[in-house]
Task: inverse folding
C-alpha cells in the first residue's frame, strides 16, 4: 500500500507508481487517490495513518492508494495542496478534491468528510 510513516525515500513516491506496484487500475472511476501529510513519526501522524488504512480497507476494498508525505523531510510540498495543519488527508480522486484535518480517530466524521458514509452521493458500493 503506501509507505509507512517515517520511511519516506528522498523523494515522495508518485500515486501512479504506487498504483502500478499494487496492480490497481488508476483509471477506474471507483479508484481513490489519497495523500496524507504528516510530521515524522509523531503519535498523531502514526494514528492518522493507521486510522486511514483501516477506513480504506473497510470501505474501499483495495481500490485506493495512499501517498504519505512527511513535511519534516519535504516541507516544500505543503504549498501544492495548501496544507496549513497536520496531519491532513487530501482526497485527489474521486473528484471533487476533499481535505480532512486531524488524526481520523472520529470514524463517522472521517466517513462524512470523505463522502464514504452510506447514502452519500460519492459512496462506493461494496
Result:
Amino acid at each position: 500500500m503506501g509507505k509507512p510513516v517515517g520511511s519516506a525515500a528522498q523523494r515522495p513516491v508518485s500515486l501512479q507508481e504506487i498504483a502500478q506496484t499494487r496492480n490497481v487500475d488508476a483509471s477506474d472511476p471507483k479508484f481513490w487517490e489519497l495523500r496524507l501529510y504528516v510530521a515524522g513519526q509523531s503519535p498523531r501522524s502514526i494514528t492518522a495513518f493507521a486510522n486511514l488504512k483501516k477506513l480504506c480497507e473497510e470501505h474501499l476494498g483495495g481500490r485506493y492508494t495512499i501517498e504519505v508525505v512527511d513535511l519534516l523531510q519535504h516541507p516544500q510540498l505543503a504549498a501544492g495542496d495548501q496544507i496549513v495543519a497536520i496531519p491532513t488527508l487530501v482526497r485527489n480522486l474521486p473528484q471533487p478534491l476533499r481535505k480532512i484535518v486531524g488524526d481520523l480517530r472520529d470514524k463517522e466524521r472521517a466517513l462524512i468528510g470523505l463522502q464514504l458514509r452510506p447514502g452519500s452521493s460519492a459512496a462506493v458500493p461494496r
User: Anything to note?
Assistant: The beta strands are 32-38, 64-70, 88-93, 98-101. The first helix runs from residue 15 to 21. The helical segments are 15-21, 43-59, 107-114. Residues 1-21, 119-126 have pLDDT under 50 and may be disordered.
